[in-house]
Amino acid sequence: MGPGRADVLRTELGIHTFGDLLRHYPFRYIDRTQFHKIAQLNPDMPAAQIIGRLVHLEETGERRGKRLVGHFRDDTGTMELVWFQSVSWLRKSLQVGSAYVIYGKPTVFNNQLSMTHPEMELYQPGTKLSGSMSLQPVYSSTEKLKKYNLDSKGIQKLQAALLESILTQLTEELPDHLVHKHQLMPLPQALVAIHFPRSQQELLAAIRRLKFDELFYIQLKLLKNKLLNTQKYKGHRFAVVGERFNRFYHEQLPFALTNAQKRVIKEIRKDTASGAQLNRLVQGDVGSGKTVVALMSMLLAVDNGFQACLMAPTEILAQQHYQSIRRLLGNGIASVQLLTGSTPKKDRQIIHRQLEDGTLDILVGTHALIEDAVRFKNLGFVVIDEQHRFGVEQRARLWRKNSIPPHMLVMTATPIPRTLAMTLYGDLDISVIDELPAGRKPIKTLHFYESSRLRMFGFIKEEIAKGRQVYIVYPLIKESEKMDLLYLEAGLELLMKEFPLPQYHISIVHGKMAVKDKEWEMQRFVKGQTQIMVATTVIEVGVDVPNASVMVIENAERFGLSQLHQLRGRVGRGAEQSYCILMSNHKLSKESKLRLETMVRTNDGFEIAEADLRLRGPGDIAGTQQSGVLNLKLADLTTDQALLTEVRNSVIDLFKTDPQLANPINALLREYLTRAEPTISWEKIS
Ligand code: ADP
Ligand code: MG
């Protein structure tokens, strides 16, 4: 092709090579064997193809309301065709009086059958319809591409020409034994069939094959890394369960561990005794008691002569971890310090010294922990809370803090659907704390519309009269911070009137405040000096106040599901019945409605995570945005769970029987891995 078209393919679709073009798959197929008559159309049909004549064309409306309306007729009736875009261009190019094959979704507007932005193709009797194809591919294109004759049709021609010229050079890229085992369509055949399927059946087989590949190579890389890590990185062997662990467990622990907590501690115990490096993700819903699991793991390290650290994503969370660990430990079991960005220089120097001479056992902190100045005498165990805010790069920096890398325990309160976990965290072992401590009453969740605001205030007053405390959270979303602060201020004004001094005291915390002021306001609430905490989402992963029994979320429709769930988890930490009230506008999008309904229906974090994945797709979940990790063209983690499991098991088997991929039958895969770029750009997961 000429340089002009090549250029526009590059800039518009990111197509640089033949390979890229081949992987520009159709997003849809038109079943060209099926035709309808206008009289048969109804608005319930997803799409229909009709042969008829364009008998009239006129431009109506002005400026923004401008549109092009056509009348289209066959021997059974007439319908309207409507375009809102490219009006002048279409007006020039469409030929009134000619016969067209049109394709689109029938709708009814003003009692009149119509089709918006139908695909139009001149009907040429004599030539066979669209060649011999029954399923005609439809490719995404752009205005710019269309100027170069690269509309869907144009791209189709390119694909056909390309396939014809390179077909003999296309080869299978998976080992034969895998192709046979999984009954896959051979790759060259699949690449042809996805563009030019001869039947629905052939298309499905091609899609399955190409989806398989997408998932397969991700798993191959992930599991290879995991294998390498266990081989390459010897771990510190924790030989004993020692005195401190036992003393803590028998004398200090104020409650009985749940079975899930026990199971996870056992898994960690087993890993750390094995001599290999532990790399484990612990998933546990908010309130499931991850902190104590982390603490006991760290005591295990201390008992074996190592130091441990716990890293949290925010200052407030680090402080809270520090305080609860101090509280849990009591005196004398192990020494603990807190290191954050705001630790004064003098204290910092003392901590540095104690870390280096080994007198400090456990360090809790923020990113400040990974600075180079922080050197441990013998770091053996690292806990990272809220994984998705830290990249693998940061994990790696902690690795390098000892000659043998420390064990790595990653904790997340955002339950991740299994498929996503297998793809995102495929190089980690996964533990799940799927049980809440006994005696917790499930949080009751209610959805109130704005019109019930007074009822909500009344309810809050009742709870405060019982001695409880209340959170009121406003959305604060970066792009519109100014707007959001206005919401917050307007809300506050109303609250101050409704809850006046001296009877009521209110704490206010938002992202624009200095850390010191935030801390002071939080402390007032923690100590019970204020009854209401008004906050933006900064408390999302923050405070633990068992006496707080109500969480009110304003503009709840603006929050994502997992965020709502996280916020709700701030209450229900004490013995009292707790409530979550979702306030919303009357006007709700279908999706917002679904989100709020899901919240009202269930407290189960995993169910919510699944719903979130279905609603938003994997690209938006848990910081995977723009990560490129899930750059899947065909495979869909919400619907392809079965295939993903098949793929993952297949790769596990593969490495079990041939860990080095040394067997000649796996040569293709070995080559792929040496060629492959150094895995996925994890550090972009922020
Ligand atoms: P999260 O998993 O959200 O980090 P935490 O570790 O903060 O949860 O625990 C939540 C609360 O539950 C804390 O106050 C903690 O002391 C308490 N807790 C943890 N485990 C148990 C248990 N087995 N029984 C009773 N209370 C527990
Ligand atoms: Mg926690």
Automatic annotation (TrEMBL):
Residues forming coiled coils: none
EC number: 5.6.2.4
Keywords annotated in UniProt: ATP-binding, DNA damage, DNA recombination, DNA repair, DNA-binding, Helicase, Hydrolase, Isomerase, Nucleotide-binding
Reactions catalysed: ATP + H2O = ADP + phosphate + H(+); Couples ATP hydrolysis with the unwinding of duplex DNA by translocating in the 3'-5' direction
Gene3D superfamilies: Nucleic acid-binding proteins, P-loop containing nucleotide triphosphate hydrolases
One of the Pfam families matching this protein, by short name: DEAD
Domain of life assignment: Bacteria
Domain Helicase ATP-binding: 271-433
Alphabetical list of InterPro entries matching this protein: ATP-dep_DNA_helicase_RecG, DEAD/DEAH_box_helicase_dom, Helicase_ATP-bd, Helicase_C-like, NA-bd_OB-fold, P-loop_NTPase, RecG/Mfd, RecG_dom3_C
Entry keyword Nucleotide-binding: yes
Start and end residues of each Helicase C-terminal domain: 452-614
GO molecular function annotation: 3'-5' DNA helicase activity; ATP binding; ATP hydrolysis activity; DNA binding
Protein task: Plays a critical role in recombination and DNA repair. Helps process Holliday junction intermediates to mature products by catalyzing branch migration. Has replication fork regression activity, unwinds stalled or blocked replication forks to make a HJ that can be resolved. Has a DNA unwinding activity characteristic of a DNA helicase with 3'-5' polarity.
Family as reported in the entry's similarity comment: Belongs to the helicase family. RecG subfamily.
Name under which the protein is recorded: ATP-dependent DNA helicase RecG
Organism: Parapedobacter composti
